[in-house]
Each structure stands twice: as C-alpha cells, then as structure tokens.
Amino acid sequence: MDADAEQWGVHRITTPAQTAIDIAAIADHTQAVVVLDQVLWARRPGGPLATIEELRMLAARRSSSRGRAKIRHALDEATALSDSVRESQSRVLLKRLGFPEPVLQREFTLLDGSTAQTDFYFPEYDHVGEFDGVGKYLDPALLRGRTPADALIEEKDRGDALARIVSRVSRWRTPHLRRPRELYDILVADGLPSRLPPPPRSLQLPR
C-alpha cells in the first residue's frame, strides 16, 4: 500500500503521522517515543499533527512486518502531554529505571493562589519531578523580555512554592539523562523508590 503523503510545493512528502511511524520502525525505543510524542503534542500552536488513533491505523496498515513490534511498543508509551523532547526522554528513562508511573502535567494551586504545572507527579509519594532545561534561561523567545537572572529567580521561587505544598520536588538536567545512574541517585536520595537496583555508573546513553 502507498504511504500517506501530502503536497508540499512541487514535492509529495509523507505526512507527519506516516513519517513518525516510519521512524518508529527503525529508531531505538526512546527516539521512537520522542518522535511520536512530538506528533501528538496537544499544546502545539495549531494543534497536534496527528491523533493516536491515526497513528495506530497507519501502523496496522503497514504491509511490511519490519519494526511492527517496535512501533506497537512505542505507541503504547506515546502521549500528547509531553511538552519537550527532554520530557519524553525523561519519561522513558524513568520507566527503564524502575520508578513509578507519573502523572503528566499535573497542575497545583500554590499558596498565593497562582498555579504551577509540573512535568511529572508521583501521587503515591506526593513527589514532583521536573526536567530543568536551560532554554528557559537563555532563549529570547522563552525569556519574553526578562533577563536570565530574572528567569532563574522566578524558577527558584516557583520551586520553593511547590516544595511548600508537596512532600518532595526533584529536578534534573540533560546530563542526567545521559548518565542514568545520576538520575537514579537523585530520585532515590529525594525519597522516590525504584523497584530495580541502580544501573552501573559506567552506563552512558546517547544525546
């Protein structure tokens, strides 16, 4: 069967959904979930590029069996709630490291009446997990006229406010996604249990 395609200028190209399924068939699991999450992303300006139903339909219609199990596995973990590539990578790694399944994008009302939306929330332990990307401190589009120092202070105040209403708040950055033992140690030290033993310190993951 022909792949789903659309016109782009003088070219015929595969649709975002078709492209994501094709990538998921050959990529490693984390990369596949990242791509699927990005296609499904609910808060994308203009809306998601595809629905999970559309992706599953394309997966079922594949004439080739190559990568079929990989696609199913990735689709089972894909979500429309992941707001960044690093959040997707974090979610896959958290599962691999044996931590409980989190609630995504849980919103909290802070003591001053404002709200804070969190990346990960582990309700059994009243524990918030946050991927702390540096873009919010450096990207002019995200700074929205603030200085990096202003953004850093604002983020610190937000973290402090969250810590007053939940039991624990854990934060990690990109290097911890490449060195899983460090992420494991951060979360366990902060009181979040894992059902698995720690990975070796020598384990390094690709960027």
Compose a concise summary of this entry.
This protein has 207 residues and is an alpha+beta fold. The protein is 45% helix and 14% strand. Strands 3-6-7-8 form a 4-stranded mixed beta sheet, sandwiched between helices. Strands 1-2 form a two-stranded antiparallel ribbon. A two-stranded antiparallel sheet has the order 4-5.
What does this protein structure show overall?
- The chain is an alpha+beta fold and 207 residues long.
- It has helices spanning 16-26, 29-40, 52-61, 68-77, 85-96, 135-138, 140-143, 148-163, 174-178, 180-189, and strands at residues 5-8, 11-14, 103-104, 107-109, 115-117, 120-122, 127-131, 168-172.
- The strands form 3 sheets. A 4-stranded mixed beta sheet has the order 3-6-7-8, sandwiched between helices. The chain has a two-stranded antiparallel ribbon with strand order 1-2.
- It has 10 helices and 8 strands.
- The two termini are 35 Å apart.
- The model has no long low-confidence stretch (mean pLDDT 92).
- The protein folds into 2 domains: 5-77, no CATH class; 85-189, no CATH class.
- The radius of gyration is 19 Å and the shape is globular.
Sheet bearing the most strands, described? 4 strands, mixed
Number of helices: 10
Number of domains: 2
Helix content: 40-55%
The average pLDDT score comes to 92
